[in-house]
Structures are given as structure tokens and as C-alpha cells.
Amino acid sequence: MLETFNLRVIWATMPQFLHGLGATAWISLVALIGAMLVGILACVMRLSGRRIVVLPAVVFIEMIRSTPLLAQLYFFYFGLPGLGFRMTETQTGIMALSLNSGAYVAEIIRAGVMSIPKGQTEAAVASGLNLYQRLRYIILPQAIGVTIPALLGQMIVLVKDSALLALISVFELTRAGQLMASERFMPAEGFFTTAVFYLLIYFVLKYASGQWQKRLIFQPAGGT
Amino acid sequence: MWGFYLQNLLDSVPFFFKGLWVTVQVAGLSLATGTVCGFILGIVRAGRVRALNLVLAGYVDLIRGTPFLVQIFIVFFILPEWGVQLEAFSSAVLSLSIYGTAYICEIVCGAVTAVPKGQREAAAASGLNWVQQMRYVVVPQALRPILPPLVGQYVLLIKDTAVVSVIGLTDVTRVGWLTVQRIPNGILVFGLVGLMYFLICYPLVYLSNRLEARLTVEENTL
To answer: Are B190 and A194 within 8 A, CB to CB?
Structure first.
């Protein structure tokens, strides 16, 4: 089974994989920042309570959540040039990833805000804090702490989703494996190496998420 | 130009429905397999037998830690090297089932673990064996917290079927990809593809939201 597994070739092409790993890492990071911006905006719109503002946010979130990322990616990749937008594959990919993850981030933050007991807001109102002060000093500090594990989970999803960018010929980790499969006819070496690198990222993020969750348990964010 | 493309696109709608049927078949088969295997493995994993647990935890991490795209490439390109020849459809169903099982296993395991220990002990004291304890006491109670995330997971899995288009299976995403070569308007073509997924997924997203809302309301009133 493994007699054909050629470690020497993997070692020889390691620079290519590391290059891919770097690309996956920075694409995911940029997309995460984009997703946070999209997510916070969509969440604030959603919770604003004004119908005209709530409706677009709900439509956006539900549309993204009900269609596959690959279809969204192709939508932008094949659709935007026709509308006169010229973007590189990487830019298109990052945009699609940001919008896609943004919808999920919006739901995560909303859940965090909702998880804060109503008494907190009431106490803040009674203390004479205005809306901005309530958000800044009472609600968001508590909400963010609670949502960090879920956001790290979304980061894991984002890293894995960025693999689809290989399909619009962005050079990243999966593409490196794909090239090895197609240029050297070594799919096993290529895709297993790719998988190992993804697992590496996964375990780092999973560990971070676990550590944070432990902190949450020892210092309850509710602050009774 | 848009009108011309739209006309062309409307002519090829039957082609899209054919693709949708392939998507539904792949999703249906792998969801069914994933649910059955996921429930069995999840209950076993909640049983806390050390060796089994280690193996299952490893399996779940391997699946959750790698992109589905890489997994389907491994099944489709590497299994043949080892002498397992599968055509695209079986590869797709196999890899999606393996993938779905891991996620459903975690959902089931979490819910089963959350059932209070006293329930199992009382069942054991009543003389039920392990299978009976699970079948009549633990799993029925775990079902309620399982349901909302399970439906949510179904939506994710149905959406992940789009990835099987890369191994040449003519599902609705691949139909879109083929059509866009002929009708060069991605907005229209993938708008239609998106609409088809939306029609399948949105009812499930809605159901999941409702289930979740109902569950939390009931918990809050306790």
C-alpha cells in the first residue's frame, strides 16, 4: 500500500507546500478580517430593530447560508467581469470567503449578544448609561468573550473553505497538492501532504479554542 | 445582451433540473448513511470505552481538520492506486458519507453525554441491558437537543455536495460550470444555480431556526 509512497519527492517539493501554506494562512487571515467587518455590520443591522435595515441583513444572511460557497465563488468569478469589475482570482476568492463567513459571524455575534442576561442592560440603563456606553462597557465586552471559541471555530471552517480557491486557480495549499498530482502523477504524496498541513492548522486553532474555553469556565463572563 | 442570455438560459433549464436530481440523489444517499453511522458511532463514543474513544476521536479530528475538497480528491484519486476503483458517483457518496458521519457523530455524542447520569443508573437498576438503556431511556431524551444542530448539519452537507462537481459528477453546480462556458454570464447562470440550492436548503435552515427557538424558549421557562 505504501511501497509507492515517495517521501523524497515530498521533501524536494516542500518549498512549494510551504509557499501554499503561507498563502492559505494569509488568505484566511485577510478573509477573517473581512468576515468580521461584514459580520459585525450585518449583526448590528439585524439587531437594529428598524425594518428597512433589518430586512436586507436577514436576506443577505439567509441567502448566504442557503447556497454553497462553491456556487457563490463561481458566481463572483464568472459574474463580476461581465459587470466590468476586474479582479484577480485571489481578490475574488477573498471577497467570496469574507461575504460567506461574514454571514456566519453575524449569527455568532448575535448569539453572543443575546446570551447576555437582560438584567445587565436594565442595570446599565438604570445607571444612566446611553446606548453607546452600554454597548462599549457592558454588552460587547461580555459578548466577545463568549463568542471567541465560536469565532475560532469559524476560523477553522474558513481555513478549510479556502481550499475551494484552488478551483479558481489561486495558488494555495490544496493547489500545491493538486499540482503535484497533475504534474508528477503523485496524488497520494500531494494530497496527503496537503492534508497534514491542514491538520496542523486545525490542531493549533482547536488548542487555542480549548484554552479560551477553559478560561471562560474559570472566570465566568457573566460576572455574578 | 442580458435578454439574449436569459432566453438561452431558460432553454437549458431542463439540464439544470437533471443536475439538481443528481445533487438530490448524492445528498439523500450520503445523508441517510451519515445519519445511521453517525448515530451508532456517536452512541458508542459517548460510552467512554477508552480504546474505541481514541480511534473515534482520531477519525473525527482527521475529518474535521481537513477540507472536504482534499478528502474527495483522496477518495477519487488515491483509492484507485490502492486497487479500489470507484466511479464518480460512488466516490462522491462514499466521501460525503464518511465526512457527514464524523460531524453527526459529534452532535449525537454531545447530546447523549448531556443526558443526566441518573437516567442511565435508574435504567440499569431497573434491569435494562446496555442496548435497552440506550434504546428506551437515553437516546429518546437526547433526541431533542440533537434535532436543531442535526438539521443545521444537513444543510451544510447538502451545500457540500457542490464540491463533488470537481470529480466530474454532473450535479447542479457542474451544470452551471458547463453552462457558463456557453452562456458567458456568471450572474445569471450561478444565480439560477444558487436559486436551486436555496429552494432545497432554505426550508431546512428555517426549520433549524424554528427548532432552536422553540428549544431555547422552553429551556428559559424552566
So the answer is: no
Q: DSSP for B122-157? A: HHHHTT--HHHIIIIIIHHHHHHHHHHHHHHHHHHH
Domain B2-221 has CATH 1.10.3720.10: yes
Question: CB-CB: which of A1, A69, A178 is closest to B82?
Answer: A1
What ipTM does this complex have? 0.88
Which of the pair, A157 or B82, is modelled with greater confidence? A157
Q: Does the domain made of A13-218 have the CATH classification 1.10.3720.10?
A: yes
pTM of the model: 0.88
Domain borders along chain A are 13-218
Nearest to A206 by CA among B36, B61, B191, B180: B61
From the centroid of its chain, how far is CA A94? Answer: 10
User: Which of B77, B180, B182 to substitute to test the interface with A, most A CBs within 10 Å?
Assistant: B77
Angle value at C-alpha A29, between A28 and A32, nearest 5 degrees: 85
Report the pLDDT value the prediction gives residue B7, as an integer from 0 to 100: 87
Question: Which grid cell sits at A110?
Answer: 448575535
